[in-house]
Design goal:
The structure is a homodimer.
Chain A: E1 2-6, E2 11-15, H1 16-34, H2 39-55, H3 57-73, H4 78-84, H5 88-103, E3 111-116, E4 122-129, E5 132-136, H6 142-153, E6 157-161, H7 167-183, E7 191-193, H8 200-205, E8 214-217, H9 221-230, E9 243-247, H10 253-265, E10 274-280, H11 281-297, E11 301-304, H12 306-311, E12 317-318, H13 321-325, E13 332-338, H14 341-351, E14 356-360, H15 364-373, E15 378-383, H16 390-393, E16 400-402, E17 410-412, E18 418-429
Parallel strand pairs in A: 5-6, 5-8, 6-7, 9-10, 9-14, 10-13, 11-12, 11-13, 14-15
Antiparallel strand pairs in A: 1-2, 3-4, 4-18, 16-17
């Protein structure tokens, strides 16, 4: 269990479990200070970190190059190496991201719903930080900055555990974070990076409910599932999405065409892309050929149910039961005809992943029913599901999308990293 | 593992794990129907259950007498036997409780915060049920009705696991619930009582995250801790409270006296009773003797810090470190003098249980700071902490008080049993 932990400033050899606990204790202490820090100081910290990242970019690139070299030696996939790489453009984006978070409204201390009760007391809610947030992610080193920024702005302390393949990049980035925190007079341990590549560190981290209030895993499904299973700390899950668009027989077909094409082709690798298109069979003859033509022109592979294939002008692949469950994250689309909205809703609630689903219809009653009955974190009417995103929703930056129901659902921004406590005013009131 | 499960109508012998899964599957199915049921039908169900409980009260009392008899044979404590007993008064209270829940506003489908975004889409939130709620409780059979009513009103299906010592009472009560559900045309499995006294049923229940969305344990700390540790399902915890009142040196001493006496003596056995009183040393001479006199007149045992004992007119017991951590739930009070508000806040955040704490002060800046810095689910200014209660807060009935930060904090009413999803309207909008 003894592990050598290389600090940026010193080398220490201590027990790994003890090391993780130490991070936890330090984070808890820092969180108590952070919860009280005024917005101006937090913003000064974010700005200082942005300046440091900008100024230290050569060092960051050198350290990133070490990770890339090691990654090549370890035969990481091209996709992984791409996620790992910090180009000047990506460093610019990190700096810009920090400055955007500065511009967001501070959620902490917001008081709402103050009302007088018959007893004479006045009661409302105050928004407060959660405390300590643990983020566990994979190879992208820019997550280190994005996550640190949102946790800091929301008044939380954070413990960041990045992928082993990005350890040098993360250390270099952390150097800038630490300098920025200290420059602004913020506690050094407001942000901490787990400074070891030992895999068992994650297990220890998940076992610290007294020091960490919430775990947010970011990465592939298997990582997230493993963490959810092992964690003694509540997890806000950011799963991928098997998202649907349903074209109702009362749809305006021009809108339906635009939305279907946008939902599939705007970006293929994102969790809010359409993976299955459902079409009411009454309008399939009118709209399917047009959709097919547009998608084939963009090299999207189509997999249809039997009925879809009958209408199709092309030799469409037969969709199997598996296709309805699949999130392709690729230029592939499953298409199914349904008898009516009920069937569409049943399909979505059965095969979907509770992420984002839309109906295209001009019928008010159906729109209302679809909104009620589809059990997803975002449900849309006559809009492209590509809008499911923190920026588009007005949350500012987002730390991910929750497909769970507890605490926060859908895109998670600063508010999702806070909680509300009750506040009560009296004037010497006592309870009868 | 084979267990004989006595249904009220039939006897079946099946595997326990399988039985619990069956309850889960049935609950999940019922929850999908429940989420769509209109308020009128849910209220009809609640009213029908109220009528049945009233009409079946003789049967309920007979079955309850069996439990009481068994409890006496098993040498349950008097307190436990008292909790177990269903008198006519308690049955009346169950019926009245159901009727009160009928009168509460239905939280499901509530739409809020609809706003237009620069893209042209309109986005807001819709309140929806959580799905399936598992309640695990101890001997009080009236919890069966209270919990069932709140889950039903909030559009959730529920699985209720009461104490083994109340099994006959719970079966009898469930009979009325089932009749009421069917009379109103609600799904039979919208409410289910775990119909076995096998202890391992709880373990199986906690291991059904695919069928149960949230677990709410009600009972003693050890039960709650055990459930939190074992559960694969998120838990909303309802712990007890080590609550404080701090009398600031800027307090109006008349208000302080009234609040301190009310907070301690209104009821001793409740989680929102004051357990430690903190007094700024500048005003201790003026107020402590009066408080002491009033509390001693009510036979409250006082345990003071050294300084408190010096001012005390009586031979006060010396408080130990343990006292600051203790929730007495009894006519005992610990008293400590502090130098200033900072010390009071540090004491509360260190020794407290994050339940409810109050300051008595006329100083605006201190009041604001106390509200911000005290990390409890309810923080009060110049009001008795006895107000910490769902009815007093305007939530209607409460299912308990959460001292956690995620999802819901403080008294948990109907809203705490729901979640919000995003809803989006467009008019054919696509994302650029």
């Amino acid at each position: 269990m003894g592990a050598v932990l290389q600090d940026t400033s010193e080398s220490v050899s201590i027990d790994l479990k003890q090391y993780m606990e130490q991070l936890g204790v330090q984070a808890r202490q820092a969180s108590q200070i952070m919860a009280q820090i005024d917005p101006r100081t937090k913003n000064a910290g974010l700005s200082a970190i942005a300046c440091r990242i900008d100024a230290n970019r050569e060092v960051i690139k050198v350290e990133n190059a070490r990770d890339l070299q090691q990654g090549q030696a370890d035969r990481l996939s091209d996709a992984m190496l791409d996620r790992l790489e910090l180009t000047d453009g990506r460093i610019d984006a990190m700096v810009e991201g920090l400055r955007q978070v500065v511009g967001l409204a501070d959620p902490v201390g917001e008081i709402s719903d103050m009302k007088f009760r018959p007893s004479g007391i006045q009661i409302g809610k105050m928004r407060v930080p959660l405390g300590v947030i643990g983020i566990i992610y994979e190879s992208r080193p820019n997550v280190t900055i994005d996550a640190a920024a949102l946790c800091l702005k929301s008044g939380n302390a954070s413990i960041l555990r990045g992928g082993k393949e990005a350890i040098h990049s993360n250390r270099a980035i952390y150097q800038s974070i630490e300098e920025g925190l200290l420059e602004a007079g913020l506690p050094k341990h407001a942000v901490q990076v787990v400074n070891t590549t030992e895999r068992t560190a994650v297990g220890h981290m998940l076992n610290l409910p007294e020091f960490i209030d919430i775990i947010i895993p970011r990465g592939g499904k298997s990582l997230i599932e493993r963490i959810s299973n092992d964690s003694k700390i509540p997890v806000i899950k950011h799963l991928d999405g098997n998202c649907h668009v349903y074209i109702d027989d009362k749809a305006n077909l021009d809108k339906a065409l635009k939305i279907a094409i946008n939902a599939k082709t705007r970006r293929y690798g994102v969790c809010n892309a359409m993976e299955t298109l459902l079409i009411a069979e009454q309008v399939a003859d009118s709209i399917l050929p047009e959709i097919e033509k547009a998608l084939l022109a963009k090299q999207v592979e189509l997999r249809g149910c039997e009925q879809t294939r009958k209408i199709s002008n092309n030799e469409m692949i037969q969709a199997t039961e598996d296709d309805w469950y699949t999130e392709y994250i690729a230029p592939i689309l499953a298409i199914k005809l349904v008898e009516n909205m009920d069937q569409a809703i049943d399909h979505i609630n059965h095969y979907g992943s509770r992420h984002t689903d839309a109906i295209v219809t001009e019928d008010l009653t159906r729109a209302r029913e679809f909104l009620r009955r589809v059990d997803s974190s975002s449900v849309m009417v006559n809009a492209s599901i590509a809008f499911a995103d923190g920026f588009e929703y007005g949350l500012g930056a987002e730390i991910g999308i929750s497909t769970d129901k507890l605490h926060v659902r859908g895109p998670v921004g600063l508010e999702g990293l806070t909680s509300q406590k009750y506040i009560v005013f009296g004037d010497g009131h006592i309870r009868a």
